[in-house]
Amino acid sequence: MDAESLQTEALGAILGAHTLAELDEVRVRFLGRSSQLKLALREVRDRETGQRLNGVREHLETAVAERQAILERANLDHSLTTESVDVTLPGTPIPRGHLHLITQIRRQVEDVFLGLGYEIFDGPEIDDRWHNFTALNTPDWHPSTSPNDTFYLADDDNLLLRTQTSPGQIRFMETHEPPVYMVSLGRCYRRDTPDPTHTPFFHQVECLAVDRGITLADLKGTIQHLARELYGPEREVRIRTSYFPFTEPSIEADVTCYLCGGAGCRVCGDSGWIEMGGAGVVDPNVFQHVGYDPEEVSGFAFGFGLERMAMLRHGLPDIRALWENDLRLLRQF
Ligand SMILES: [Zn+2]
Questions:
Q1: How far apart are CA 273 and CA 171, in angstroms?
Q2: What angle do CA 329, 104, 102 make, to 5 degrees?
Q3: Distance 193 CA to ligand 1 centre (A)
Q4: d(Cα 150, Cα 132) in Å, to the nearest integer?
Q5: Phi, psi at 127, each rounded to 5°
Q6: CA 271 – ligand 1 centroid, Å
Q7: Which parts of the chain have pLDDT scores under 70?
Q8: In sequence order, what are the residues at sequence separation of 6 or more whose Cβ sits closer than 8 angstroms to the Cβ of residue 319?
Q9: Dihedral over Cα of 295, 214, 130, 141: its sign
C-alpha cells in the first residue's frame, strides 16, 4: 500500500465532504475497521512501517476532527440565520387561580382585628352542649338545641357540630384572664334546608372583648371600623334592639349600603341599610359560667356571617353560588 497516495486521496475526500454525513462516510472509508489503512496496520511487522502508517492515521484523524468542527459551525450558523425566535412575543399564558371568596374575606377580617390588637382563636368544630348552649345562657328547652335544628353526633346527645362560633368565647375565657380581645373564625353547622340565604354549613366571625368599663359605644365603634374596612370609609352603622340569650342588651347592627350610600337600591332592598348581624353586651350569667366577676369587667360580643359579607361585597344573590364551584362565577372575583 502506498501510504503517501492514500493520505493524499483521503485528505482530498475529507476536504470535499460538505455535510457531516458525507464526512462520516469518508471517515469510515479511510479510518474504519475494514479500511485499507486499518487492515495494513494489522499486518505490520516492522517498527518503521508501523510508525509511518500510524503517522498517516493520526494525520487523517486530526483532519477529520477539524473538518467536523467546521461543518458543525456552519450548521449552527445556518440555523441561527434561518430559524428565528421572537423573544418579545408573549408566552403561552399559564392560568392562575385565586383564593376562594370566603377565604379572601376571612383573611381580610383577620387582618382588621389583628390591626386592632386582637388575638385569633380556633375553637373545635365538634363541641359539647355546655360550650355551644348552656354556658352561653341557652337552656335545654330552647328550640335551637333541638335535633331538628342542630346536628348531634350519632348516639350522643352531648357532642354536636357547633351551631355558631360563640363556644369559642367560652373556651377562650375558661383559659384566659381578662382583659380579652379575641376573634374566632370558622365553620358552623345547622340543620337548614339550602335556599338563597341558608346552607347547612356556613362561616362566622366571632368577636369578644372583655375589659373594665367596656360599653355599647365600644361595640358600635368596632363594628363601624370593620364595616369601613370591608365596605369603604363612608360607611355608617346603626343599631337596633334585638334578642340573643347570651347578650343583654342585644342588638342587630346595620351598615349603610356600600352601593347606594344609603339612598336605596336593589342590593339593600331600597332601605339604604345592610344587615351585618347580631351583637350585644355580654350577659353577666355568661361571665359567671367562666368564673369572671361581672362587677369587675364588662364586654361585648358579636357573630357575623362571612358568607353574608362575601355576598354583599360581590353582589351575589344566592349563598349557594359560593359552594357550587362554578368557575365562571368564581373567576370573576
Ligand atoms: Zn343600597
A1: 34
A2: 65
A3: 28
A4: 10
A5: -135, 180
A6: 7
A7: 1
A8: 196, 197, 198, 199, 202, 307, 308, 311
A9: positive
How many residues in the chain?
333
Residues 312 and 241: their CA atoms lie apart, in Å, by 22
Ligand 1 centroid to residue 256 C-alpha, Å: 8
Q: What is the pTM of this model?
A: 0.67
**CA gap 270, 280 in Å, rounded:** 26
From CA 162, how far away is CA 318, in angstroms rounded? Answer: 23
Q: Which residue has the cell 441561527?
A: 80
Distance separating alpha carbons of residues 195 and 216, to the nearest angstrom? 34
pLDDT of residue 13: 93
User: How far does the centroid of ligand 1 lie from the alpha carbon of residue 101, in Å?
Assistant: 21
DSSP class of residue 44 equals -
**How far, in Å, from the CA of 207 to the mean position of ligand 1?**
26
Instruction: List pLDDT tens digits, range 89-147.
Output: 888 888 888 899 999 999 999 999 999 999 999 999 999 999 999 988 888 888 888 88
Residue 93: DSSP 8-state: P
Q: 3-class DSSP state for residue 293? A: coil
Sign for the pseudo-dihedral over CA of 238, 302, 292, 157: positive
Beta bridge pairs of residue 189: 201
Q: How many CA atoms lie less than 13 Å away from 322 in the CB half-sphere?
A: 31
Q: Which residue has the cell 498517516?
A: 56
Name the residues around ion ligand 1, CB cutoff 5 A.
Answer: 257, 259-260, 265, 267-268
What distance in angstroms lies between residue 264's CA and the mean position of ligand 1's atoms? 4
